[in-house]
Write a structure and sequence with these properties.
alpha+beta; 4-stranded mixed beta sheet; 13 helices; 55% helix; extended
């Protein structure tokens, strides 16, 4: 029997539709069901490679915090002992001001770990305001030998030398304007020392006004000269030139240098320019040498260069013949030889 082509095509389409209907129904049912989330993986098994570095960083931070806390704990007794030492050099009212200021600093800035130098400087500054200002003696070329000698009312024992601090300072020419903070700290230290016994005597040497004296000592500003002057005559005098940082010097730092005697770390000053024991001072040549250096320092540099160039030309002219000396020699060479 002959079946038309169109009937066969329709039958095939219906057959394929009924055959795929169950499959499509199952797919739609699966799509309508809620998605089931996978079982939670334990935290210990989830990306261990990424979690371990993070844990190591946390442990390192905890260790750093513990170390900082230990350092703060160590600094507190040191700071307390330091304030006790400073307070021992002041009257009772001023010592209370220093200790209360230091305690406030520690309580307020405990978490920030404030440095000892800053708290001590603030406490010393608050106490210095209440102290009277001391007029320190000024050393000159005429009075320095009479000023720097043991006094009859010294606080040290009869056999102990007398301690002196001499601030070598200046102005724009000798110190380039960097000595003002050093002078301020030195004057504040003098106010603190005046309230206690057993402290060193102090004086100021200004190299701007006393140029000859500074050159005779070979002293440079800013610096603090530490002297131990014995009471016995003709005894050697220990001199140390302690350098000073003009940008960081404070009264608290100078008091600390006295309490800890850190000036002993500086070598003794010896040689020809020693103010008392040098051979220039023994032969009374220190002042003439200082005057020569001061005169040479006043001469401008351009004049020295002109003088050197002038002398070099004079020396070169003496070594070469002049034009008048060359002309007779040339004339004699052009003349014929005389007959014999």
């Amino acid at each position: 029997m002959h079946v038309p082509r169109a009937t066969l095509i329709c039958a095939v389409a219906l057959t394929s539709t009924f055959a795929t209907a169950p499959v499509l129904a199952e797919r739609d049912a699966a799509a309508q069901k809620p998605l089931q989330q996978p079982a939670a993986v334990p935290a210990s098994h989830e990306q261990p490679e990424q979690l371990q570095p993070h844990q190591e960083q946390q442990e390192q931070q905890e260790q750093l915090q513990q170390e900082q806390q230990q350092q703060q704990g160590r600094q507190k007794p040191l700071l307390a002992s330091w304030f006790a030492k400073v307070a021992s050099y002041l009257p009772e009212s001023l010592s209370r001001a220093i200790t209360t200021t230091g305690d406030k600093k520690d309580d307020d800035d405990d978490a920030a770990a404030t440095s000892d130098a800053a708290s001590v400087a603030a406490a010393a500054a608050s106490a210095v305001v209440r102290l009277k200002k001391i007029d320190l003696p000024r050393l000159t070329l005429d009075n320095w030998k009479t000023v720097l000698r043991p006094s009859s009312t010294a606080a040290s024992g009869p056999g102990e030398p007398e301690e002196w601090w001499i601030l070598v300072t200046g102005r724009n020419k000798t110190c380039h304007g960097d000595c003002e903070p050093v002078e301020t700290a030195f004057n504040e230290t003098a106010s603190i020392f005046s309230a206690s016994r057993g402290t060193p005597h102090q004086a100021i040497l200004n190299c701007e006004n006393q140029t000859v004296l500074c050159y005779s000592w070979a002293a440079s500003a800013p610096s603090i000269w530490h002297l131990l002057i014995p009471r016995a005559q003709n005894a050697s005098i220990d001199v140390r030139a302690v350098p000073v940082n003009a940008s960081t010097v404070t009264a608290a730092g100078l008091v600390q240098m006295h309490l800890e005697k850190s000036w002993r770390d500086v070598d003794l000053y010896d040689g020809a320019f020693h103010p008392f024991d040098g051979w220039l001072a023994q032969w009374n040549l220190a002042v003439p040498v200082g005057q020569a250096y001061a005169l040479f320092a006043r001469v401008p540099t351009w004049s020295i260069m002109v003088a050197v160039s002038f002398l070099s030309r004079v020396v070169m002219r003496r070594g070469t013949p002049t034009v008048r000396q060359r002309r007779p020699a040339a004339a004699d060479a052009g003349r014929p030889a005389a007959p014999q």
